[in-house]
Specification:
Helices cover 20% and strands 40% of the residues. It is an alpha+beta fold. It folds into 2 domains: 211 residues, Double-stranded beta-helix (4-Layer Sandwich), CATH 3.60.160.10; 35 residues. Strand 1 and strand 2 form a beta hairpin. The longest helix is centred in the last third of the chain and has 21 residues. The termini are far apart. The C terminus is likely disordered.
Length: 254
């Protein structure tokens, strides 16, 4: 099996499958494939041995069903990024695992396991809402994770702490402790506009942060989107403006 990532702003992952290779992804993720690639949709994959395992995977942001891709005579399967950002390859060794944001998993080789990963405290999942239900990615496998915008890497030493706006937490090694803490200062929490909670990541381990979040993108576009009853002309104009805004956002021209 050979894999390559092409592009910058909207990258594409292309995987050249040999006869013995198997790729696991959520249904509807693939962008194109050659005629020799076969698909099989099942709930009992990606580490799920029964229906409860599949339900647990779904609760973490993964699909209740997953699709397996094989190519008995060889073939190519491609996965395109859904948002401007990066596709990050990870070699997941046996016994190691990663926590990734709710919709970060793109695909993985046979042996990949997806499950719910709240790590340390259930309170993080309750008070943080859906955005703090993390996926746990384990192997052994090769996996590809989609992160929004640019990616910043940090290698935290034991006891070193990084405070992050929760939406920018893209992925981290399971050795990193994840928790939520209140925003410092009453005025900051209530009037600062950055939310009540902030993620606290404590080493040791590697952390991947993403610069683009879907809520921030939606907030930036909301003033330019058509209003209900505005008519087709307004909607068309809004679509053109939204495209221009997107171009400006990701080219750095504000």
């Amino acid at each position: 099996m050979q894999a390559k990532i092409t592009g910058t702003t909207m990258p594409v992952l292309e995987i050249d499958l040999d006869a013995s290779d198997r790729i696991v992804a959520e249904p509807g993720e693939f962008s194109w494939m050659t005629g020799g690639v076969q698909m099989r949709t099942t709930a009992l994959t990606a580490g799920a041995k029964g229906i409860f395992g599949a339900i647990g995977r779904a609760l973490s942001g993964g699909g209740l069903f997953m699709t397996e891709y094989t190519a008995p005579t060889g073939g190519v399967i491609a996965f395109a990024a859904k948002l401007p950002g990066s596709i990050v390859p990870i070699e997941v060794a046996a016994g190691s695992s990663y926590m990734i944001h709710r919709h970060g998993f793109l695909c993985g080789t046979e042996g990949v396991t997806l499950s719910t990963g709240l790590q340390r405290s259930l309170g993080a999942g309750i008070f943080g809402g859906d955005g703090f239900v993390l996926q746990k990615l384990s192997g052994p496998c090769t996996a590809w994770v989609e992160l929004g915008g640019e990616v910043m890497n940090y290698d935290l030493t034991p006891g070193e702490t990084l405070l992050v706006h929760p939406g920018h937490v893209g992925m981290f090694e399971a050795s990193v402790n994840f928790d939520l803490t209140m925003m410092r200062g009453f005025t900051n929490a209530i009037f600062g506009g950055d939310g009540l909670f902030i993620a606290r990541l404590t080493g040791p381990g590697k952390v991947w942060l993403q610069t683009l979040t879907v809520p921030n993108l939606a907030h930036a576009l909301s003033p330019y989107l058509g209003r209900e009853g505005g008519g087709s002309m307004q909607s068309g104009a809004a679509g053109g403006i939204a495209g221009a805004v997107l171009k400006d956002i990701f080219s750095g021209n504000r």
